[in-house]
Amino acid sequence: MKFAIVLFALFAVALAAPSDVSIVRSESDVGPLSYKYASETSDGTSKNEEGVLKNVGSEQEAIAVHGEYNYVAPDGQTIRVTYVADENGFQPQGAHLPVAPVA
What we know:
Blueprint: H1 2-16, E1 23-30, E2 34-41, E3 46-54, E4 62-72, E5 78-86, E6 89-93
Antiparallel strand pairs: 1-2, 2-3, 3-4, 4-5, 5-6
């Protein structure tokens, strides 16, 4: 089910891309307990992600994901976001993202 959600999200991103952009690299490896994919388009956008199923068969079963994506902003700046998504939620990091103050 989780893989289907990821696949649907990738499909939606592909449909939303401008028509003059082409895929220059696309790789994936999907197994029963893990997956990874990487893609790159002609406009400089790239995505890499890996996920693994943790605590298989237990009530705490969850998928842990880490990855990154890059794209060129309208001002020409390359934006890079790295992230972890696990039992603690989605945790993005990037130079352009605000950081919460330390309490």
